[in-house]
Amino acid sequence: MSTVLKWLGGKATIIDEIKKVIPEGKRLIEPFAGSCSVMMNTDFEHYIIADINPDLIALYQSIKIEPERFISISQCLFHDNNNEIDYYSLRDVFNLSSGDLLTKSAIFLYLNRHGYRGLCRYNKSKGFFNTPYGNYKSPYFPEKEIYALHEKLKSTTILCGRFQDTLSLAREGDVVYCDPPYVNEKKFTSYHTNGFTMKEQQELVAKLKELSAQNICVVASSHDNEDMRLLYSDFSQSYLSVRRRVGVDVGKAKHAPELIAYHIPVTP
Question: Which CATH code for domain 64-133+140-144?
């Protein structure tokens, strides 16, 4: 199942490989929600999805509570504003708005589908969304994906917060899947306005080790390099080559090495 949002680093291209590792269970916990590709392609009884980005979480809450109104507002935005001038005008409205969260969430979807390569990028000084216009001829409106997500969210708890707080909710019998920002030449990719530091990455791995010791199933994705293999050395590992291409035509798709680290408790 495709996702509502385009998302850099989304797991659509390797979802089958991830599903080979993720076991069956009653509840899946994702502290780095992103586009929710793993949630949309698995069949747990319940989910917890969380992210530190309040705009992302507001969009999921809007789709869960008022899907019809969300679709109606979003369709109007897509139909009437497919040009550069309107894109930047709506981006300003999005950045300065403090009113109706559902309308702001609809603008967030519009910006995601009309912005350059689906990037979700904010400046550090004011926290403003600053992805430039993508110049697409006919951006796809994900109506069927919105309805599918709405159905999935009926059995989902949605949280906005730090991964540490979300992982503290894990209990034996849960499955945890983490897709944190990736390392690229020892620099972390942008993660909302605060960045994602090496210290946080180390804290994440330490917490995953704690959960593993409690017989909780843990799966994590990472950019594959020697540092990350060492950091996840206490986990089983598999290695993939992932196709990286988001949105506009930019020549041949690039491939990047991907690491999947996991601990699956042995059931008696």
Answer: 1.10.1020.10
